[in-house]
Amino acid sequence: MAKKFYVVWAGRETGIFTSWDVTKRAVDKYPQAKYKSFATQAEAKAAFAQSPASSIGKSALPKAAGRSSTKAVGAGTSTKTLSANQAVLSQFDVVIYADGGCEPNPGKAGSGIAIYRKGELTELWFGLFNPNGTNNTAELNALYQALIVAKQVIAAGETVQIMSDSQYSIKCVCEWAYGWKAKNWTRKTGEIANLDIIKQAHELYDAMKTDLVLQHVAAHIGIEGNELADRMSIHAIEQQHKGFSQFTGPIDINKILALRTG
Questions:
Q1: What is the gyration radius of the CA atoms in the chain, in angstroms?
Q2: 160 φ, ψ to 5°?
Q3: Which positions fall inside the RNase H type-1 domain (predicted)?
């Protein structure tokens, strides 16, 4: 029997699964569950990056992600459980967690990312200290750095997903930026905060959105990658590190997680 890939947009867990038994547990008797099977992993990933309405009832590969589909990626899906996060780690060659912190807000800010390859932590990065920053700016900076890494991963022919716990950052880069750009980067309600970094991040995202999954992850629920990126953002503040550098100390996960949170 040919292997199938099951996309679950709405269920007890969301994501892409290769087992019908796992998929059934996620959707069985779940109110308004939304799911569908696909013949190839590429079809499943493209479908998961869009709203379920774009795929349910269709067998063809979904069209390239555009404004409507990016909204679904940012706002319509979220990794909220440890098992759902583990599914993501098993589905992509590289998973990048991005986070920013600020103490107080506004105040001292920093950013961090954690990179997993084949499900294993391989790199931690930190920096972009700003003595007069905001949490939103720090989150956007982290997302931008993750996009830079994702571009390299895609160029190497590997699959990649970025996880951010900032709905604001995701929506700025993947959704709102399209409208702002169409109006020459203006909006009726006034100045667009953090415009420079939004422009840079959006340009990167828009160029590779058909090869990238960018998803929200619930913060501080014990998802290791998100927690480690958080600790790196605070490490950046403590070190007042203005560059963005790879963490070179021993990667003792338990020791790093024991550091204070942002």
A1: 18
A2: -150, 145
A3: 90-238
For the chain, how far is it from start to end, CA to CA, in angstroms?
Answer: 48
Contact call for residues 237 and 184 (beta carbons, < 8 A)? no
Q: What are the residues facing 146 on neighbouring strands?
A: none
Given a cut of 70, is residue 39 above it in pLDDT? yes
HEC string of 30-95?
A: CCCCEEEEECCHHHHHHHHCCCHHHCCCCCCCCCCCCHHHHHHHHHHCEECCHHHHHHHHHHCCEE
Write out the two tokens for 85. Answer: 């996060």
Residue at 66: amino acid letter: G
14-222-102-254 Cα dihedral, nearest 10 degrees: -140
Residue 68's closest CA among 82, 51, 80, 46?
51
| Residue pair 258/128 in contact by the 8 Å Cβ criterion | no
* Helices 135-155/224-239 angle, 10° precision: 120
Burial of 75 (0-12, 13-18, 19+ CB in 10 A): middle
Q: How many whole angstroms separate alpha carbon 139 and alpha carbon 162? A: 13
- 214 Cβ contact list (under 8 Å, min separation 6): 70, 73, 74, 161, 162, 164, 170, 173, 174, 205
| Both tokens assigned to 46 | 């493209």
Q: Which band of pLDDT confidence, cut at 50, 70 and 90, is reported for residue 2? A: low
Domains of the chain: 5-53 (3.40.970.10), 86-258 (3.30.420.10)
Residue showing tokens 């390859």: 117
